[in-house]
Amino acid sequence: MRLVTYKYLFVFSFFQLLVSFGVPVSLFAQGKIQQFDERILNDLAAQRTPEKTAFFRFISDSYPYGDVGVPAGLFIGGVIGHDQQMRQNALYVGSSTVLSYALTTLIKHIVKRPRPFVRNINFVPVYRAQNSSFPSGHTSSTFATATALSIAYPKWYVIAPSYLWAGAVGYSRMYLGVHYPTDVAGGIVVGAGSAASTLFLKK
């Protein structure tokens, strides 16, 4: 049974890579998708205020604290409480996030989608992020953390705030003008897929 489970996880991971590498490249080449992305970003940019910008910059910058703090907290709690399950969950959550980071870096290198402000020099972001645009690394890592944590602890009071935080981070990347909506969507796929792919670590 365990071999069958691993087989399906491998198939899912392979499909995830196909989606991440193949589909976005063809979609970006289509004008309607690009126009949709740009229209959303322009609408969000038009609604910026100093208060909202400060808030979403804070949310965007919070991602490493959740990605590192959650597995670290689980591990420390497991050590202090002599809870092997909690330590195992720490490994699972941490591994999911690390895998999402690795996949995101690889996909960025292959796809090399320009940032919105690079493609359109008239578009003004809140700040100028480096590297390529697809997929959103902030989104992929936070959704990996949120998904893995929700699988490890399937309670509404864990699931709701986890995905609220991850969703807010993804939205902040669009609001700040450093990622297209399809970049964020790609990050969600990579992040959630990474959590599913490392499920074998959760015993």
Walk me through this protein's architecture:
Mean pLDDT is 86; it is low at 1-23. 77% of the residues lie in helices and 0% in strands. It has 203 residues and is an all-alpha fold. Helix 8 packs antiparallel against helix 9. The chain has a single domain, classed as Orthogonal Bundle (Vanadium-containing Chloroperoxidase, domain 2), CATH 1.10.606. This is Phosphoesterase PA-phosphatase related protein. It comes from Mucilaginibacter paludis DSM 18603. Residues 90-199 form the Phosphatidic acid phosphatase type 2/haloperoxidase domain. Pfam families: PAP2 (PF01569).
- Beta strand %: under 5%
Percent helix among the residues? over 70%
Q: Report, as a whole number of angstroms, the end-to-end distance.
A: 14 Å
Question: Kindly state the mean pLDDT as a whole number?
Answer: 86
Q: Mind telling me the C-alpha Rg? A: 18 Å
Overall domain count: 1
**What structural category characterises the helix and strand content?**
mainly alpha
Order of helices and strands: HHHHHHHHHH
Treating each run of at least 4 consecutive H or I residues as one helix, how many helices? 10
CATH topology: Vanadium-containing Chloroperoxidase, domain 2
CATH class: Mainly Alpha
Give the number of DSSP strands. 0
CATH architecture: Orthogonal Bundle
| Poorly predicted regions | 1-23
Estimate the global geometry from the Cα principal axes: elongated
> What's the main sheet like?
none
